[in-house]
UniProtKB/TrEMBL annotation:
Protein's name in the database: Type 4 prepilin-like proteins leader peptide-processing enzyme
Pfam families: A24_N_bact, Peptidase_A24
GO biological process, alphabetically ordered: signal peptide processing
Species for this entry: Vibrio thalassae
Taxon lineage: Bacteria, Pseudomonadati, Pseudomonadota, Gammaproteobacteria, Vibrionales
Prepilin type IV endopeptidase peptidase domain location: 150-252
Length: 288
């Protein structure tokens, strides 16, 4: 046991005092977090769907067999071994190494050779590089932990919104909680009173604006999930920065829609733009 603690302490000393070791550690940690992000992005929407079906069964028991309900209940967690979506085989440990396994398998399933989406590799690479960026900023350990946490949550939000046009409170609430803790520990240049008041004021403003536009033009400015997301991050970045994030997100969404020639009435994934510019705002406001 003493050997374990001595080794762990020596490793900690190496990581904290050696810049190269910190970068390598950040790369490895970021890649592993990115792998977990892929799991959440794949499983969370399925979990929410299963819960909805189970709720329907509780209201209308005849529409769902008990065996089917039990099967759905057994499949509503983020834990358990990963399986291949294409052929339902369990993924072996050697096939689940972040970045390396994808490259080794050349982006194909190890069992049936079906092409695997490049988004799995992209998420792992992006999170790894973002972790390196955060380390290079020279953040203290507490700031680094919370910035890594909220960055991972924002990346999950962006992915799920892109794929499913979905921003569930199961994601926006943890972001809000993380923002509160960051303010509490003085990790950002925002006081708790500023953050809370700004969030409440912005929520009221967006709700009133949505109602007004809905009554006058028959559409809404932002979806409920988008509102909850921007309000959650406002706690940590303040009202002024939140409005800047919204403006930049709106401009980016419009430009991308024009480039891709997406029709104005077609639903767009707005959460991804909020996530990107929120990360930028946090980089500006975080205290080292």
């Amino acid at each position: 046991m003493d050997l374990f603690f001595n080794t762990a302490f020596d490793l900690y000393q190496l990581i904290t005092h050696n810049s190269f070791a910190r970068v390598v550690f950040a790369l490895l940690t970021g890649a592993m977090i990115g792998s977990f992000i892929n799991v959440v992005v794949y499983r969370l929407p399925q979990m929410l769907k299963n819960y909805a079906v189970i709720d329907m069964h509780l209201m209308h028991p005849t529409e769902l067999t008990e065996s089917r309900a039990r099967a759905l209940l057994a499949d509503v967690g983020l834990g358990g071994r990963s399986i291949t979506p294409c052929c339902d085989n369990r993924i072996k440990a050697r096939h689940n190494i972040p970045i390396i396994s994808y490259l080794f398998l050349r982006g194909r399933c190890a069992y049936c050779s079906t092409l695997i989406s490049s988004r799995y590799l992209i998420n792992e690479l992006v999170m790894a590089l973002l972790c390196v960026l955060l380390v290079m900023l020279g953040l203290n350990n507490l700031a680094l932990f919370f910035m890594t946490s909220i960055t991972a949550l924002l990346l999950i939000v962006a992915n799920i919104d892109i794929r499913y046009r979905l921003l569930p409170p199961q994601l926006t609430m943890p972001i809000g909680f993380t923002a509160i803790l960051m303010v509490h520990y003085d990790l950002v240049l925002i006081t708790m009173s500023q953050g809370i008041i700004s969030a409440i004021a912005l929520y009221i403003f967006l709700t009133v604006a949505n109602d007004f536009v809905a009554k006058t033009k028959g559409q809404i400015l932002l979806g409920q999930g988008d509102v909850e997301l921007i309000v959650a991050v406002t706690i940590a970045i303040g009202a002024q920065m939140s409005l800047t994030v919204l403006a930049l997100a709106t401009l980016s969404s419009w430009l991308v829609a024009k480039i891709r020639r997406v029709e104005g009435k077609k639903e767009r994934a707005f959460g991804q733009y909020i996530s990107v510019f929120t990360f930028g705002a946090l980089l500006i406001l975080v205290q080292t």
